[in-house]
Specification:
The protein is α+β, with helices and mostly antiparallel strands. A six-stranded antiparallel β-sheet has the order 18-19-14-21-22-24. A five-stranded antiparallel β-sheet has the order 2-1-5-4-3, with helices on both faces. Strands 9-10-8-11-12 form a five-stranded mixed β-sheet, covered by helices on one side. The longest helix has 37 residues, at 775-811. Residues 153-200, 427-464, 515-542, 717-742, 1114-1137 are annotated as: Disordered.
Length: 1338
Amino acid sequence: MSVNSTGTGSAPCRFAHYFVICGIDTETGLEPDELAALYQWLEAERQGKDPEAAAPGENFDQSPLKRTFKSKVLAHYPENVEWNPFDQDAVNMLCMPKGLSFRTQRDSREPQFHSYLITREDGSRTYGFVHTFYEEVTSPQICAAMQTLHQMHRAEHASNGTNPSSSSSSSSSSSSSMDSLASSLDEGDSSSSSAPSPSAAGGGPLALCLVTPMPFMHACRRFLAQMHRAVTAQQPPPLPLESYVHNVLYEVPLPPPGRSLKFHAVYEPIVCQRPGLAELPLADFPLGEAFQLLGVENLVQLFTCVLLEMQILLYSQDYQRLMAVAEGITTLLFPFQWQHVYVPILPASLLHFLDAPVPYLMGLQSKEGTDRSKLELPQEANLCFVDVDNHTIELPEDFPQLPNKPEFIRELTDVLLRFGLSPEGSNAPITLTATAPPTTTSTTTSSSRTSGSPSAGLKSTVLRELVDDGRNGNLGREDMAVLELLQGSPTLDRLQALAKRTGVTVDRLEAIRRGVRDGQADGETGGGGGSAGGKRSAEDEQELRSAQLNVQLREVFAGRFATMFADYEAFVIQSAPDLESWLTNREQMHNFDKASFLSDQPEPYLPFLSHFIETQMFATFIDNKIMSQWEEKEPMLRVFDGRIEKARLFNVRAPSLRSSTYQRCTILEESAQAIEQRLMKIDHTAIHPHLLDMKIGQGKYQQGFFPKLQADVLASGPTNNKWSNRTATSQRRQDRHRHHNEHLGLDNDLKEKYMQEARSLGKNLRQPKLSDLSPAVIAQTNWKFVEGLLKECRLKTKRMLVEKMGREAVELGHGEASITGLEENTLIASLCDLLERIWSHGLQVKQGKSALWSHLLHYQAREEKQSLLTDSPGSNSPERRKSDAGLGLSTLRVSVIQDMRHIQSMSEIKTDVGRARAWIRLSLEKKLLSQHLKQLLSNQALTKKLYKRYAFLRCDEEKEQFLFHLLSLNAVDYFCFTNVFTTIMIPYRAVIIPIKKLSNAMTTSNPWVCVAGELGDSGVMQIPKNVLEMTFDSAFRPPTHITALFKCQNLGKLTTVQLGHDNSGLLAKWLVDCVMVRNEITGHTYKFPCGRWLGKGVDDGSLERVLIGELQVPTSDEEAGRGSRTPPMQRSPSQPRRISITSLSGRASKPTSAQIQEGIGESVNNIIKHFHKPEKERGSLTLLLCGENGLVGSLEQFFHHGFKTARLFQKSIFIWDFVEKAVEYMESADQMGDLQETAEPLGLTCETFCRYANAINNSPRSIGKDGKFQLLVCLGARDRLLPEWLPLLVECPVITRMYEETAMLRDRTTVNALIGVLQTLHDFAITLETSLVKGFDL
């Protein structure tokens, strides 16, 4: 029915590209809907049933009225448009997504409107607007076919022994045949075998569709409704329908940016407008409807999910609702754009696309009466499910909230209330009211759309316009050009005013203006409805309010982004010299300084922003920004940058750039006025529809039936049309420009290739191919998914490694090395999401919301069953970690199941998705993720049972590469389990290891231990003396380790252990080598070196010590071979250094004064760096104060320099002895009155120093002399007193007796330099761990 020529060259600027008619093809007759059959086949396969049993075939079990048949594109005009080729299968499928079904008189036969869009591979979109109504079926072939099908249906029921009347739609007394086609259906006897005669009692659907390059939804809806009205009216339309179709296809242009356009449909004119270049892009779908369907709260949550690129599934019975919500939500993303699969209406035959393991935004039509719980979705771990009809939304777990969400919702609510809409949403049809009356009110109502005679006045008006308007509503091309020039130039306006004042008249311009005014007056008197100045109809008024509401809501969203990303440009990294080198190295380059950007943001914004800047839409936005150096700016980016620039010029932002206070949008009224002004003054009027050169007698008017249009007159447009000429010249200009650019710059194909690779996986899958749905195409699509998942895994693991190792390289000199906890958490969350998507791909039958956890549970059940059969308890743990026997710790079993049991015992986690994520975090922290997943997938029988052949997990080569990428994460240390689950109870094992060679292996005293970490401490735990753990070392000497197993709330990374005993019994003195503590869940083992005595009268007389821990490297060969790892944390001062300080001979080489000064500078520097990190990421300050190379250790070396350590009667002298003697001297001098003569501040300082030293001495704790000195330094640093105490010690006469002449403490210059260094710590509030200051009272 279509013709063979192509449309004319003006199409890029044409309002519509195609006019399409879909319905029943009476020539080929009724065909079962193959797509519906394919859908059944796919569904059967998805549910694990035999697909062949549900193979495509006749289904006589169903009444023919309940079945769907194949619809056809009956005609489309023109045949083809060069830059928008006609995709017949896609258009047919989207015009009638459910196929074609008949309606009876009992059914609702109201015309339906819906829209759709097709996204091409390059991301460009084509919109379709569809008006479906029901025509009476008069074709004898169709009636006969329906009768035959009905008889087969009856026969099927008879053979099954069931009464057809009970299952059919009619009553038992009816013949239950084709009641949509024959009037005898409801009267005939059920036993009658005669076939009913055809009549016009029912209808078959006919869809009229306009395919357009831009979403002018309201205009298309009104045009199609008027076409339908012309068919159902009693009187024929003023002109043949071909005239209107020809007009809209070839003579109506797209309005230029910032202009409005009026064109004429069958009965009334239609006005559409297009935003200016500096305004938000065109969006004609009613946002008010989306807000009413979901409510503000739900819509903002949905918006957040879309921003974070989760999987979004919209669910509604109404196609237009799906489209309104999908288009509404993507419109609000400005200046960002959705980069993944986008199918607002998912035809039934494409349901397998829900299996896609990539982010998507899809709309699924719900069948009437179906329950949400019956909807089998392949994956829900990262799914946002939106039930549009019931106003409900199901959100994924743990997703961050939008910054300033309550204030944002309040602002949106205010906008809705101004337009008379409820922020809670409702199902009622939307009528927009204005709280303040609009500038032009109207009392007229839009003319009736139901069938009936259109008013004679309207008809005569249209005819009179055609007859009277000599120029057919348009100016000559030259006149138009002159007028446009005049209207667009204020300079010319001023010149003309000047000319008038001097008495010169510009006749030609006046004549043109008069002509335009006359034409407008003509239109107004003729009742043109939408023209400027005339009273607008209620429908026009409603459209205006809808457009104003749209733009105001969008401005609120755009304003949020402009505030949040006002300074984004400062963080864009412009590293490439030219476009080609940038495109070539795109994947290796960092384009945006994420860490600096986040460190600059207000704290409440961070959870959301850290996730958002990892998305594809943000990456593409930054890519566009970088490419704008070499190319024309992407339109949305240009508008966004313009707004930020404008805000800067007007200095809207306060100097406090980073305040998290909410800023409301300030241009709401301005944006609404721009729309109203365009509608008040129509810029362009298209040529009126007119008679065409048609054959007489064809297309005869018959009420209720859409005529067969004459194809030859609709095949191409007029060649003399000014729009086509203007377009053709502009097209030629654009072509020249494009060719010029191609010669100058990069070859476009190469660029496109790079960009395709550089951007996301989902891009080439943005829109599934609708034309070919053979299993081969489905397999190819799945293969693309598999490749995409592997690539995403490679990029994610690489990013995690680069981020982590990059930070570590910077911080190797000190402290724990970690990237910002927030950023690390974001990357790990996205890894969890990726693993869930991989495990959801190609599932046979979905069980539970988490596919990964479901697989683990199956594995656990099989392994436990197997271990019962073999009766060997260890069979489910084939991999074990080697024993830490040398360190006194028993073997820690390592297995997938063991880690699962740890997670299952955590009562804090309530959902499967949460358990899967916790298990991933635990495995990652234990550096076992790759190994565990390999173990899980080694059970091939289970994998085959759970997954289809095309699933990612059954592609062996890709699976191996995937596990290898995960293995690379073992190169760095993560604490992603310990730092996230802070409230869980964790079992710890502590082992105290004595030095057998030099002391008793056993002690008669009662030892105790207190373990502390970043999150708290275990409290003092007494260890019963009878807890002995016997192990054997290589020489078979039986050392006795004291072991304690205790359970307490997660301590985080362990920092210190307090170890002591009560000094009771004969063997009270105890030389301890170290304490080992292991987290029994994560397997992290910490060593706390001691190498000192505990006991009275030995070493420094200490009965307790505070030990600083270091994380141990795994000991097994296999784990040692895992590659590089993060540097260890700082630990307690080592045994050799302790001995060199306290021994007489100083066996180890003593540090020089330069080394000591460097050590002090380094330790102070580390403390300052510690305070410059974000609070949550600082780690333990105790390590920096008391650990190796800490402040205490470096000051100890300073005080030991030149210290006279001669033993008197075999007794060691300690620094604390010097401190005590100094205190003694000061107190005696104070009593003698010597100090009263000194300056007052010095006297006060003396008093403070003595008070602190005495309080430490009088403390009930037996911490030994070195422990006392450590405590004095820590308290002095905390209370900012160290620089004041040093001069006192230097002035004290005791110094000459106890220090050599060359000692650093006796060198004034060195001491003054030290004071200066220590004073830099005064800017920071140092807080001490309770393990250090416990029992100390000032």
